[in-house]
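User: Round two. Same drill as before: sequence, then structure, for each protein.

Assistant: Same drill it is. First protein:
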Amino acid sequence: MRKELKADRDKAKQAVEGTKKKINDLGAKLNALREKLHSFEELIIRAEREKKEALENYALNEISKEGFESKKNELERIKGDEIETHEFIEALDLGIKKETNNLTELHNRFSVADRAVWNHIYNEIKKQIQKAAGDAWLRAFSAKLKAGGASYDSLMQDIFGGMPNHEDIHQIQAELAKEYLGDPQP
C-alpha cells in the first residue's frame, strides 16, 4: 500500500513537471511567433507602400508591368505568411489551454494522492493509539471530537504527551511521513 501510494505520487509529480515543461515550451514558441507577426506587420506596411509607389510609377510608365506584378505578388505572399502565422498562434493558444487544463487535472489528482498519504499516516497513528492506550481512549477522544471539544492539535498533544508549539507538531508529521512513505511534500 505504502509503495503504491509513493509510486502514484511520483507518477503524478512527473506528469505535473512534464506538463509544466510543455506549457513553457509552447509559451516560448508563442512569443517567438508573436514577434514574427510583428515583423510581418512592418513588412506589410512597407510592401503596401512599395505597391502603391509601383502603381504610381506604372501609371507614369516608369516601371514595367512585370515589376508591378512582382511587388503585388510579394505583398500577397507576405499577407499569406501573416495569415498562416495567425493560424499557428491560434493553434498554440489552444495547445496552451489544453495543457493548462491537463495541469489543473494533474494538480487535482496530486491533491487526491496527497490526501491518501495523510489518511494512511492518520490510520497508522490510530493503530499506535489503539496499541498504546486501547480502544477506550480512542472512543473517548472520538466522543470529544464529535462534541467539538477536541482538535487535531489536541490529538497530537494526547498522543505525544503535549506539544509546546506547532513547529514540533510539524516535525512529528514530517518524521511520520518519512517513516511510512518517504517525504510526501510535492
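Second protein:
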Amino acid sequence: MSLHTLIRSLIIWPLSLGSVDALAIRVYDPDRHDRFLNFPTAPTHNLQFMHAGFNLTGVGWWTPPGNTDYQFTMVSPMHYIGASHASPGAGNVLRFLSLDNIIRDYTVADRVFIPIDDDTSSDLFIGKFNQPIPSSHGIGFHPYLNLPNESQYLNRAVILLGKPARGASQTTATITDSGINDTRVISMPYTIASGGNDEAYYEQRDSGSPVFIDQNGTAAIIGVNSVLATVTTNPPIGPPVTTGYVNFANFVPHYVDKLNDVMEVDGYRMTKAIPGSTTLTLTHSPPSSVIRAGHAFSLELNLNNTGAIISENVKLINMFPDGSIVTGASGSAWFDESSATETRARRAKIDSGNDTDYTLTLTFPTPGTKVHTVTYSSDQTPLGPSTTQNFNLEVIESFISWTANLVDKSASGDDDMDGVGNLLEYVFGGDPTVPSRQVAGTTVSLLPTYTNTGSGHTFSFVRRKDFTQRAITYSLESSTTLENGSFTDASALINNTQTSSINDDYELVTLSLTLSGDERFFRIDVELNE
C-alpha cells in the first residue's frame, strides 16, 4: 500500500470547479447530514441535523459572487479562520445564520496569512470584519481545544463540516507537516471498504471548513480543512486501486500564538476551551476632591491579575444611574465597546502579576448618592458574584444643578423678578422661583443687615453650612465712598463672630465690628469657585 500526496494537484484542487459537489459521506441522509434546509437560497436550521446539539452559528459561508461552498469559522466576535488558498479578500461578504434563523452578513476588512516557523505562509489564514459582531445578532464564536501535548488530540472523534453546509464525523489519527509549505496538519483517514455511516472525506471546495472536538458540549475547533491524500494499493494485475483517503486539516492549536499576535491588536485572543482559573482584583479610586453635580470628574480603576496564569479576553462593564453623562473611558490597550446604557471595554490579556489602569470621566447632573457598578471578567475569571462590585459616590449640589430648571441659569439671572440674582439666592438661601427677600421657608432676611445698637455695631448675613464643600467664600468688605473699586477687605474690623442655625442648610452669621470715626459702607463679597 502506498500513500500518494500529489502536492501540486492538492494545492490547485480546492480552487478548481470540478464536478463533485458535496462532502463525501459514506451513507448520506439529508435529514441527518444537512445543517440547513433550503441552503443557500433561504436557509433555516435543520433540527434533525446530527450536530444540532452544538451552537454552530459561528460557521459561515462566502456569499456570491464568492462560492457558497467555502466555509469559515469565527474565533472571536471579530475574527474568523480558514484555509489560505480559499480566503476572501477585503470587501467580500460572509454570511451566517443565527439560532432564530436570521441571516447576518458581514463585510471582510482584512486577512492575514499565518506564517510557519520560517515565516513562509502556511495554509491557515485569519480574517476580520470591519467591526465586532454585536452579541444581539446571535452569532457565536468557537474556542480552540487546548491540550497539553499533540498526542492527546489523536484517536479522538471529531465533528467534520463541509460543503454544501453538511456535517459528518471522523476520527483523528496523526499530526504531521503537510506538503503545503510544511503546514502543520492533523489527519483523519477514511477507508472505502469499511467504516461508520457518518464518516466522510473532503471533496473539492471543502477547503477551510472546520473540524471540531466536543469539549463538554462545546464545539472546540482543532482544524480547518486543507488537503486530501489518496490511498492506493497495487494489485498483482491491473492498475492501482483506490482504497481510501486521508483528510488533512490545518492544526489550529499549533498556530495559536501567531493567531494571537494578529488578534491582540484588536483587543482579542483565541479563547481556550479549557481556560484554567485566575483571580482579578479591582481597585476603585474616586477623586479626592468633592464630586459636584453638573461638573465633570474622573475616577480610576485598576484591574490586577493576582493569579498564576494569564487572564485573556478581559471584559470591563461600568454602569451608572440613568442620566449620567460619560465623556471619557480609556486605558492602555483597552478597546471601547460602549452602548447607550453601559460603558464597556475589552482587553486582550493581563499577564500574571500585572495590572492595568482604566480612567472614566463623567458627570452626574443631580446630587445624591450614586451607585457605580463595575463588572469584570475574563476567560479565566468567569462572571459571578465576585466579579461585580458596587461603589457609592456622594455627589453634592452645585450652582449648576441648583439652577438646572431655571430659564436664565446665569449668576445674574432673576426668573422670579425679585431683584435678587441667582447667585445671591443660592448662597444666601433664597428660592429662585419665588419672589421674596426672605430665606426660603423662614422670616429671616435673605440679604445682609447692619445694626447699630448704640453700644456696638453688628453685621449679619446668611451662610450655607457646607460653604467650604460648595467652594463658596463669604468676605466682609467696606468702603467710605461707594465708588467702583473702592471696597476693600474689612476682616480686621471684626472683633467677634457668632453663628446660629436657621435650618439644616443655613446659619446666620453675626459679626461684631470695631469702627473708627469714618463713615463706612459694608457688603459681603461672595465668590463661587466650583
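The radius of gyration is 37 Å.

User: Perfect.
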